[in-house]
Specification:
- There is one protein chain.
- This protein is an alpha+beta fold and 655 residues long.
- It contains 18 helices and 19 strands.
- The strands form 5 sheets. An 11-stranded mixed sheet has the order 3-6-4-9-11-10-16-19-15-12-13, with helices on both faces.
- The N terminus is likely disordered.
């Protein structure tokens, strides 16, 4: 089966139509064909924005080919193995302090000749099932860059809004020219899918160069490890977790191996790695962006860009947002995109007229422990920054709860059958639950609560299980891909290698559990989403809010192989309960910790030790209000400038 063959052919024709011979380095003016050492290296690629790159190209200071080469130099220097693997990539690991490598990228978009010339081994090859890799319809990153250079030399115009921007793509998304396995070592007959995911095709059409597939937690699991890509590391402390499941995307951006990356979030896979790697990450409205061509596509899977600035994230979103007939959920976006390009909402430096609420439910120190304190304090400082920028802050106070009144009124009513089993004493079997719920609606004092308090925005996600959703989505993807060897989720499990580690559990058991489902039943997920939407919309309306602000998460990254911080009062590693039910959220750097608390082998909290680790602040708005987020976050970013690259992965010496 060939899903997007016609659309992809048009995109590829545009690229190939630029006309240079593969590998050519063309500027259109031999007098300007400066030596790479004299020209390319004079441009500072570290922290360069899309606008910086395009301005340099337009001034003839640099070519697109030079940009790709500068990133390849950094990949060559910093993308190696960052853990001890005494039994190989599939065996147990131990962490290395100051490893000098991060293992963020698992596959490079280079033909064998170019890959070998750059010194990358065969495991980074575009395909493991097509060793020759000579198909002229699949130009690699250097060939595409050369053709973009020739087109620019001929016309003097950039090809599109992302001309010169270099991307990594989370391995969860189809790329027709590179292997796509969601990090797994699975035995596909053809490890390349038949065509691009919609988001990838739209990026290429906008002039972007796809340089690599980013490493990821295999099948978007919970650890920074995959059977094919190996283990990733945090560049701010290589012993620590880079965040999952889009860790490779965030790390490749943080270490300046690419301009931007495409990540994915279901319940924290953009927010957590963005904050732990000091980059900007967007979780867009699910219905705004197509999930076509994604392994494990689902109701809450969001296609999110990661860059180093809010402006670049806005520009990338503009390249691929909107209706796609291959994803029925994007039909809800028709007529709901802003009148102006998203990046045009990133120029304001004051926030007069904005009303921003503070979600204190996530910031109440009395509910958590010492681990949370610095993150909460830094976001408190961010709230003060927003106030100084002119925003009106709606703050319920340090121990208050912004959404509590709406939760009390609407969670019992709209969750109903998911709510009542949580309180068997209040809703005994055989009793009139309908009347009890009605009594609660008219007398909020009757809403049940525990010693820890009432149901809150932290814990109203619902208790129902969505049977069969994972199996259905896996098998839909596999059937559409049409591989000759892997034809079902069962095949994906049995025809694959998995790592073995007593500390970091592999994905096989969870896949086997997913494969046992025989029924597709997503009613509870839809009910939970509707309940959260009702609660948040109601409180936004009552409080006249434009957005809310809160910590991306309270917990700094732990040592990857150590005991992780346990849940306390529904606090996990990131706060995503609201955004995962249909609301866009934008994570922005908010500063750094001065210390960190780890857990010992017995699980006890150890004394603090000095550690400079990134902290993020989240801005969240109503569905399809990404422009509001860009306006607020760009003003905050410009006023605070908390983005700081990892010091151990700085500029390379210029030879």
């Amino acid at each position: 089966m060939r899903r997007r063959k016609a659309a992809f052919a048009g995109v590829l024709a545009m690229i190939i139509g630029l006309g240079a011979a593969p590998g050519a380095h063309a500027t259109g003016d031999r007098d300007r064909d400066w030596d790479w050492d004299d020209r390319g290296r004079s441009f500072k690629i570290e922290e360069a924005t899309i606008a910086d790159i395009q301005e340099a190209i337009q001034r003839r200071q640099i070519t697109t080919t030079d940009v790709v080469k500068l990133y390849l130099e950094r990949i060559k220097a910093y993308n190696g193995t960052c853990v001890n693997e005494p039994q190989g990539i599939l065996g147990p690991i131990t962490m290395i302090p100051h490893a000098g490598k991060v293992n963020a990228l698992m596959t490079l978009n280079l033909r064998p000749k170019n890959r070998t010339a750059w010194g990358f081994d065969a495991r980074k090859a575009r395909s493991q099932t097509d060793a020759a890799d000579t198909d002229p319809r699949m130009p690699d990153a250097l060939e595409i860059a050369a053709r973009l250079d020739q087109q620019f030399a001929r016309s003097g115009r950039l090809t599109g809004p992302l001309h010169g921007a270099v991307f990594s793509i989370k391995d969860q998304y189809d790329t027709f020219d590179m292997r796509t396995t969601s990090g797994a070592d699975a035995f596909w007959a053809n490890d390349r899918p038949p065509d691009d995911a919609t988001v990838v095709a739209r990026l290429r059409a906008a002039g972007a160069i796809i340089l690599a597939k980013a490493n990821m937690d295999e099948y978007a699991g919970g650890d920074a490890r995959s059977s094919w890509g190996g283990t990733g590391c945090n560049p701010y402390d290589t012993e620590r977790d880079p965040g999952g499941s889009s860790g490779g995307s965030a790390v490749s951006v943080a270490t300046n191996m690419v301009t931007c990356s495409i990540a994915e979030e279901t319940g924290g896979s953009v927010v957590k790695p963005a904050r732990w790697n000091n980059v900007v990450g967007l979780v867009p409205t699910r219905e705004l962006v197509s999930a076509d061509g994604m392994i494990q596509r689902g109701l809450n899977t969001r296609v999110g860009p990661m860059c180093r600035t809010v402006g670049d994230v806005a520009k990338v979103l503009g390249a691929y947002a909107g209706f796609d007939p291959k994803d029925e959920l994007t039909a809800f976006s028709n007529g709901r995109l802003p009148e102006r390009p998203y990046e045009s909402y990133t120029g304001d430096r004051r926030l007069y007229g904005y009303r921003i609420g503070v979600i204190r439910e996530y910031m109440n120190k009395s509910l958590f422990n010492a681990v949370d304190t610095e993150s909460i304090d830094l976001v408190d400082r961010a709230v003060g920054d927003l106030r100084r920028l002119g925003a009106t802050i709606v703050d319920p106070g340090p121990t208050g709860a912004l959404f509590q009144s709406c939760v009390d009124r609407f969670a019992p009513k709209w969750l109903n059958q998911q709510f009542t089993p949580q309180w068997p004493a209040v809703f005994p079997a055989g009793a009139d639950h309908n009347t009890t719920l009605l009594d609660m609606f008219f007398d909020l004092s009757k809403v049940p609560h525990t010693a820890a308090g009432r149901p809150s925005i932290r814990n109203i996600g619902g208790t129902g299980t969505d049977a069969g959703d994972g199996r259905y989505n896996f098998n839909a993807y596999i059937r559409e891909r049409g591989d000759a060897n892997i034809k079902s989720l069962t095949d994906l499990i049995t025809k694959a290698n998995f790592w073995t580690d007593p500390v970091l559990t592999n994905r096989k058991a969870s896949l086997e559990s997913t494969d046992r489902a025989l029924t597709l039943a997503t009613a509870s997920a839809l009910q939970s989403k509707h309940t959260m939407q009702t609660i948040v919309h109601q409180c936004f309306a009552e409080l006249d809010l434009d957005a809310v602000v809160y910590p991306s998460g309270n917990i700094p990254p732990a040592v990857l192989t150590a005991i992780q911080e346990p849940t306390v009062n529904d606090r996990g590693s990131n706060w995503t309960a609201i955004s995962s039910r249909g609301f866009p959220a934008l994570t922005v750097p908010a500063g750094f910790t001065s210390k960190v608390y780890d857990r010992g082998p017995d699980g006890q909290l150890l004394p603090p030790k000095a550690a400079r680790l990134p902290v993020g602040v989240d801005f969240l708005a109503l569905p399809f209000r990404e422009a509001t987020l860009f306006d607020i976050a760009s003003a905050y970013e410009a006023a605070t400038r908390h983005r700081s690259p990892p010091p151990e992965f700085g500029p390379l010496g210029r030879r």
